[in-house]
Specification:
Blueprint (H helix, E strand, L loop, with lengths): L1 E10 L2 E12 L4 E5 L4 H4 L1 H11 L8 E7 L11 H11 L11 E3 L2 E2 L5 E2 L4 H10 L4 E5 L3 H4 L6 E5 L2 H9 L11 H6 L15 H13 L13 H7 L9 H14 L22 H5 L22
Helix pairs in contact: 2-3
């Protein structure tokens, strides 16, 4: 039997729709995933198999074929675990008469069926809304982040068993909601402030002009003159982020996996790459450049030219 479940994937800083097609047919037990999956997607076979078994459902000893469409785009990440598991349960008849129209599933499964946190939820939910998706089912730890996108019904689930119960209508889960307007009304504070700088009147005047006009500014001087100290405090005199700007910044943090507990970055970011950094290292590297963590816990930025 064939089942189709919708999910999302990442391409750079944007998401795109993926149709997870699962066919369960008679034959020798065999499982194949096609559609240009990477290693993390291929390894989902063992995670999904064990999670279904530990959720109290017998795993089918049949031939299983999973296709991730569009098949000409490479799929990366572990957020296909949940849609693959739901598709197998639908194809084997363990889930009957459930409505998954206009619903996207995302989530990484543990061996006991628990849903782990995934990265890049915010850009994927933004794109899902543009495509007309009405509901998103994802790990509960990511629900607050996804609820920033107004217009989506965000259902946060803790494990596969709870997801099955929700789809069958045996339990109710209140959609996650967040008041974005109230977040912007709060007094946004920076850890360091431009007003803390004593002296340096000429440099401060130059930075104020650069901030007011949106100009570039080069600080040149001997070590210890205060160049970095002044530059780090420049964001505190810039205008507050608009909602659209906050979304753009938060998307990068979400993909890098360093999004704060507020689920939305409200302060202007500051990055200080070393002057000897190469262009490849600055962009992030890879065939599809993306924000990556470094050994210091921060991440490299993406430069658009």
């Amino acid at each position: 039997m064939l089942a189709i479940v919708e999910s999302m994937a990442l391409h750079g800083l944007t998401g795109y729709l993926v149709n997870v097609q699962i066919d369960v047919s008679p034959g020798l037990p065999h499982w194949e995933i096609v559609g240009l999956p990477d290693i993390s997607v291929r390894e989902s076979k063992e995670r999904v198999r064990t999670a279904i078994k530990n959720s109290g459902i017998e795993f089918p000893s049949r031939r299983i074929t999973v296709n991730l469409a569009p098949a000409n785009t490479k799929k990366e990440g572990s957020f296909f675990d949940l849609p693959i598991a739901i598709g197998i349960l639908l194809a084997t008849g363990n889930l009957r008469k459930v409505n998954i129209d206009n619903t996207v599933f995302m989530g990484e499964l543990s061996l006991d069926g628990t849903l782990n946190k995934i990265n890049g939820v915010l850009p994927m939910c933004i794109e899902a809304l543009k495509l007309g998706i009405k509901r998103v089912i994802l790990p509960a730890v990511n629900a607050k982040e996804a609820s920033v996108v107004s217009g989506l019904e965000v259902i946060g689930v803790r494990n596969l068993y709870e997801t099955i119960k929700f789809l069958k209508g045996e339990i109710k889960i209140t959609p996650e909601q967040i008041d974005v307007q109230k977040m912007f009304e709060k007094n946004i504070k920076y850890n360091i402030d431009f007003a803390e700088v004593k002296g340096q009147e000429n440099v401060k005047r130059a930075l104020e002009i650069a901030a007011a006009g949106g100009h570039n500014c080069a600080l040149i001087g001997s070590p210890g003159a205060g160049k970095t100290m002044l530059a780090r405090r420049l964001p505190s005199i810039l205008p507050d982020l608009s909602f659209e700007e906050a979304l753009e910044v938060s998307k990068i943090h979400s993909i890098a996996g360093v999004l704060n507990e507020n689920s939305l970055v409200l302060t202007r970011p500051f990055r200080a790459p070393h002057h000897t950094i190469s262009s490849v290292a600055l962009v992030g590297g890879g065939k599809i450049p993306k924000p990556r963590r470094n050994k210091f816990g921060t991440f490299r930025s993406i430069i658009f030219r």
